[in-house]
Backbone:
C-alpha cells in the first residue's frame, strides 16, 4: 500500500494575523530610524539597496490589500505548502514592482500601507480566495506566506544594517514551519528527520523510513539558520562547518535539496 498522505499543517488564524501586524510594526519602527546614508547602502539581495528592501516590505502587505479589492477567483489553484517552490518564477516581476514604488517619504508610505491593509483584512474571511502571482489561494494560507516574507526580509535588513530588529515569535514559528513543510514536500520520504526546535520536526528524503527509537539520520538547527538555508541565504557546508547545523547519518546531507524558496 502507498504511504498515507500527510495531513496539511493548520495555523491559528488569530495568531497569524497578529504576527503579520507585529512583524510589520517592528520593521516600520526600524526603517523610520534609518539615515539617508543607511537607506542607500547595499544588501545581500543583488542590486537592491536598503531603500529597495524597505519598499518591498510595504509591497508584502500592500499587495494583499489590493488583491482583496479584486473579484474573488472561482477556485483554489495553489496549496500553502506549494507556495515556497513557486516563488522562483516571479523574481523578475517582483524586482520590477519593488523598484516602481515611490520611496520619497517612507514613513508616510508605511502608514498608508498599514491603514489600507487593516481596512481590507478586517472583515475578510480566511476562506476567501485571493489571486496571487502563482494562482488563487485561501486568504488564511496567503497570510502565512506574509510571515515568511516579513521574517526572511527582516533578517536581510538586519544583515544589511547591523540592526537587531526583533522577530515576532509567532511569525518566526509560522515561517519556520512552512519552509520545513516545503522541504518535506520537495524531498518526500522518511529517511531523514529534520529538527528545528522549538517549532518544527519533519521527515524527508527517500529511503528507509524511521518508525521508532533514535532516527539513524538526523539534522538539527536553530530557526534562523534554517530559514537562511531554506532561502539560499546560507550554504549547507558553511553552516555545518560552523556547527550551526548538526547532521548525523549517511543520508543527513540536505545540500542537494536546498533551497526551497529563492
Residues:
Amino acid at each position: 500500500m502507498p504511504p498515507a498522505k500527510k495531513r496539511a499543517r493548520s495555523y491559528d488564524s488569530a495568531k497569524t494575523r497578529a504576527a503579520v501586524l507585529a512583524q510589520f510594526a517592528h520593521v516600520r519602527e526600524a526603517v523610520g530610524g534609518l539615515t539617508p546614508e543607511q537607506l542607500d547602502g547595499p544588501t545581500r539581495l543583488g542590486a537592491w539597496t536598503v531603500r529597495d528592501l524597505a519598499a518591498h516590505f510595504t509591497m508584502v502587505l500592500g499587495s494583499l490589500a489590493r488583491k482583496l479589492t479584486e473579484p474573488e477567483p472561482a477556485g483554489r489553484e495553489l496549496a500553502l505548502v506549494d507556495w515556497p517552490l513557486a516563488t522562483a518564477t516571479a523574481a523578475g516581476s517582483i524586482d520590477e514592482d519593488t523598484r516602481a514604488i515611490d520611496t520619497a517619504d517612507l514613513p508616510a508610505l508605511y502608514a498608508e500601507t498599514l491603514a489600507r491593509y487593516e481596512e481590507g483584512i478586517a472583515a475578510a474571511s480566511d476562506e476567501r480566495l485571493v489571486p496571487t502571482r502563482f494562482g488563487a489561494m485561501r486568504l488564511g494560507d496567503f497570510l502565512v506566506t506574509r510571515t515568511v516574507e516579513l521574517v526572511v526580509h527582516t533578517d536581510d535588513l538586519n544583515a544589511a544594517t547591523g540592526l537587531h530588529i526583533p522577530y515576532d515569535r509567532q511569525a518566526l514559528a509560522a515561517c519556520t514551519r512552512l519552509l520545513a513543510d516545503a522541504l518535506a514536500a520537495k524531498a518526500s520520504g522518511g529517511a531523514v528527520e529534520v529538527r528545528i526546535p522549538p517549532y518544527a520536526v519533519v521527515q524527508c528524503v527517500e529511503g528507509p523510513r524511521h518508525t521508532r527509537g533514535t532516527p539513524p539520520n538526523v539534522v538539527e538547527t536553530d530557526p534562523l539558520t534554517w530559514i537562511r538555508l531554506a532561502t539560499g541565504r546560507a550554504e549547507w557546508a558553511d553552516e555545518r562547518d560552523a556547527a550551526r547545523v548538526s547532521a548525523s547519518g549517511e543520508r543527513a546531507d540536505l545540500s542537494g535539496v536546498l533551497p526551497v524558496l529563492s
